[in-house]
Prior knowledge:
Strand order of the largest sheet: 9-8-7-10-11-14-12-13
Mean pLDDT: 93
CATH superfamily of the largest domain: NAD(P)-binding Rossmann-like Domain
Pfam families: OCD_Mu_crystall (PF02423)
GO cellular component, one term: cytoplasm
InterPro entries: NAD(P)-bd_dom_sf, ODC_Mu_crystall, ODC_N
Largest sheet: 8 strands, parallel
Shape: globular
Radius of gyration: 19 Å
Low-confidence stretches: none
Distance between the termini: 24 Å
CATH class of the largest domain: Alpha Beta
Protein name: Ornithine cyclodeaminase family protein
CATH architecture of the largest domain: 3-Layer(aba) Sandwich
Number of domains: 2
Number of helices: 10
Amino acid sequence: MNGIPVLDHDTVTGLLGHPGAADALAGALRDGLDPERCPDRSTVQVPAGQLLLMPAAWGPYTGVKIAGVAPGNPAAGLPRITGGYLLLDGPTLQPLALLDGAALTTLRTPAVSALAVRLLATPGSHRLVLFGAGPQARGHLRALRSERPLDRVTVVTRAPEPAESLAAYARTLGMDAGPGTPESVAGADLVVCCTTAREPLFDGRLIGDDTTVVAVGSHEPDARETDTALVRSSAVFVEGRTAALHEAGDLIIPQAEGVIGRDHVAGTLADLVTGRTPVPADRPRLFKSVGMAWEDLVIAAEVYRRWAAGPPGAPA
Length: 316
């Protein structure tokens, strides 16, 4: 472990942006990475919250993310998500680098959503309703601007101040932005949910057939951001079927209600990237993300490759 490079927050975010991260994910899926073979996430309850262990192996790399989820941290001015990512050489399991885990998560999750929007949303989508105002919401705002011509952003939060703060940031990016209510989804092209909610955030019957909904905030079977009405009416896409049906309350709860079956999922990111599954145009598209270890590995490996290559134009 002596001399292992530590890639801190600024290094991780400086080396790779959301479009490049989304491209790396798509490339891995085109090259045959199978999310269904990804190891399950291990969750350990600890006094401060949860400790998540996420291992994966693909190509020349193996890695593991140890992430902390500390719900009490924001009140103390600390990030809710903590941790680190250990990247290993695949054939020898020798350590290659330690990456800032929070930075990796903040990069990875919007990149996955950006790839889903790239593949699912109508090309002219420009009206975004964004639930949440934390780091993930801000990251999604930046990531989705690279995929669709967003010019109107409505931010929905429980308290008005965070919504106005994120809306002000969106205005610095040249977008018309302001706070809204859950009913604002009725006029949206894109709806993105980045919250810690455990109950549905809006009435799914308000969602139009041309709308794409992305829900990323929960990975627990008894928590959800979208309601049964939306799930039932939508073409549902996920990162991996096994993980979604094990962790995504958005799907597990409607299934337990007897409203949908296990075959309700229309396809996965891999299906979309490879063209195996067409995108329906006659109903909403719902992408439900729980976050998977293969995504962290692919993006950590891409960050490491760029770091190892050195600055552009540097001697090899």
